[in-house]
Amino acid sequence: MESAKECLLGKTLSQMREACVALRLPAFVGSQLSEWIYRHRAKDFDEMKNISKKNRELLSQHFSIGRADALQSLHSVDGTSKYLFPTLDGNFVETVYIPDGDRATLCVSCQVGCKMGCAFCMTGRQGFVSSLCATDILNQIFSVPGSERLTNIVFMGQGEPFDNLDPVLQSIEVLTSEWGWNWSPKRITVSSVGVRKGLQRFLNESRCSLAISLHHPIPEERAKIMPAERAFSIVDVVEGLKQCPSFRRGTVGQDVRNEDESRQRRISFEYILFDGLNDQRQHADALIRLLRPLDCRVNLIRFHTIPDSPFKGVSEQKMTDFRNYLTSHGLFTTIRASRGEDIMAACGLLSTKEQSENKGKAHPEKDV
Ligand code: SF4
């Protein structure tokens, strides 16, 4: 399978200028392209009125914009919407739009399926199918209905972002550059189980916030529900984060981050509470010991039942008690509101297994 034409959505400004020069066009046409595609969200070359017709025709012979509308949508009673987008390799991913008052968060996917195999996650059950390119990642953000109202983007959909880091970082560059969407990096959060090499690169090359999927504080127990623990121990992950001044708490409890960094980057740890598995006092104490050196937040998440799963969620009271215990021991802890469970859009429920088994030419820019 190969793409009919190269896509422009996802290219950096310098890549767009180089692409124009290769066609013997002036480099500034690349700047015009970037402005039309990223600022004005153009879906077609005909919209680009300050580029001559002749040059637009030449560009359209060699390139596609790369935009593709959602093929399906489901809408929850709580206002959350889930969209199915085609990818350039003929697969499909799900994207979740979560409005909340004057905020709107988009949960984007970076892979079709996932290699990490977390036992409580539908995407993990799907297994790994393929990785998305920057065009596929950005298309979810640019083409989702309500895109212009987005206030936050989280890479918490299907896939492990640090297992597909180049396209994730390239998408972030488009979203945060002046020539792109010009967003502050603090409005973007990338979630990971802690893939070590990717984590280090992410910290060096981006200023976005980080969320670590923790879910169990005791390594041997964590490995039973998250096989990735065997390769990327949570203890090593936290040890590495402690070396990063952005996240280190001062010895007397004060924040030692510099002014600039503290405004840019936050770290949170995601923790699904499972009945009898990680919800006891010993687990809370282990969490406190593990995370106390960090200036971080713990997000407690309700477990959303998946078919044939041995896991059970906990009561509201248990969630509250667990949060209060962590908070009273100095860990800033919140309970994350559960959204979109009725349309299988909540945390851990995304899967495109069925669609990817029947893959085909769904993306308008794709020959399959
Ligand atoms: S929880 Fe995240 S890392 Fe784990 S299998 Fe699901 S998508 Fe992959």
Report on the structure:
By secondary structure, the chain is of the alpha/beta class. It folds into 2 domains: 2-65, Orthogonal Bundle (DNA polymerase, domain 1), CATH 1.10.150; 72-357, Aldolase class I (TIM Barrel), CATH 3.20.20.70. The chain is 33% helix and 19% strand. The chain contains 13 helices and 16 strands. It has a 10-stranded mixed sheet. The chain has a two-stranded antiparallel sheet with strand order 1-16. Helix 5 packs across helix 6 (165-176). The longest helix has 13 residues, at 316-328. The protein is globular, with a radius of gyration of 21 Å. It starts with a strand and ends with a strand. Residues 251-263 have low confidence and may be disordered. Iron/sulfur cluster binds at residues 114, 116-118, 121, 123-124, 158-160, 193, 213. Residues 114, 116-118, 121, 123-124, 158-160, 193, 213 line the site of iron/sulfur cluster (SF4).
Tags for this entry?
368 residues, 2 domains, binds iron/sulfur cluster, TIM Barrel, DNA polymerase, domain 1, 33% helix, alpha/beta, 13 helices, single chain, 16 strands
Distance between the amino and carboxyl termini: 6 Å
Please write the string of helix (H) and strand (E) elements.
Answer: EEHHHEEEEEEHEHEHEHEHHHEHEHEHE
CATH superfamily of the largest domain: Aldolase class I
Oligomer: single chain
Entry summary:
The chain is α/β, with parallel strands linked by helices and 368 residues long.
